[in-house]
Amino acid sequence: MTAPTSIRPAAEDDLAGILRVYNQAIEKTTAVFEYRPHTLEMRREWFKAKQAASLPVLVAGEYGAVLGFASYGPFRAWPAYKYSVELSVYVDESTRGRGIGTALVRSILAAARERDLHVVMAGITADNAVSLRLHEKLGFVEVGHIREVGYKFGRWLDLKLLQIVLEGPRQPVDS
After folding, report:
1. Whether 55 contacts 72, CB under 8 Å
2. In angstroms, what CA-CA distances link 122 with 17, 20, 125, 171, 173?
3. What radius of gyration, in Å, describes the C-alpha atoms of the chain?
4. Alpha-carbon distance 80 to 171, whole Å?
5. Choosing a second label site near 125 at 20 to 30 A (CA), which of 48, 91, 144, 148?
6. Distances in Å between the alpha carbon of 164 and those of 23, 35, 85, 138?
C-alpha cells in the first residue's frame, strides 16, 4: 500500500530528490537541453534564485521521497512579458504514468492563476509524445515548432512551444 501523492511547496530538504529527478532528465531524456548532470550546489543556487524572485517550486512526494517537481520562471526578460511565464515539470522515471505530471502541472497552473498571470508557455521536445499529450489534455495548444534547435544523443531535436491563456490579470498595468 502506498501513501497518496501530495503536491506541496518545495523545501530545502527536497533538493537532493529534485536533483535526482532533474539529473535523470539530463542523462536519459531530451527533456532538458543539457549535457552534464547538475550538482547539489547548483540546485541550491537555483532554489535560492526561485525563492528570491517569489517563484513557486512544487514537489510531488510520498513518504518524504520526491517523485517529481514543477516550477515556472520568466518567459522572456523584458518588462512587457511580466504576465507570461514558462513552466518546467519533471517526474521520476520509476513513477511515470501515475498522474504525477498531470497533478504537478495543474498545481503550477493554479499558482499562476493566483498571481494573475495571463500566459503559461511550455517548451517540449517534439518527439516527447507523453509530455505533449499531458499538456494538451490540460488545455495547452501548440503555437510554434522550431526545427533542429538542439543537439543531444547524436541527433537534432525539434522544440514545440505550447501555451495556455489564463484569465488574469483583470487590470494589467504597463509598469
Report:
1. yes
2. 23, 22, 10, 25, 24
3. 16
4. 14
5. 48
6. 27, 29, 10, 9
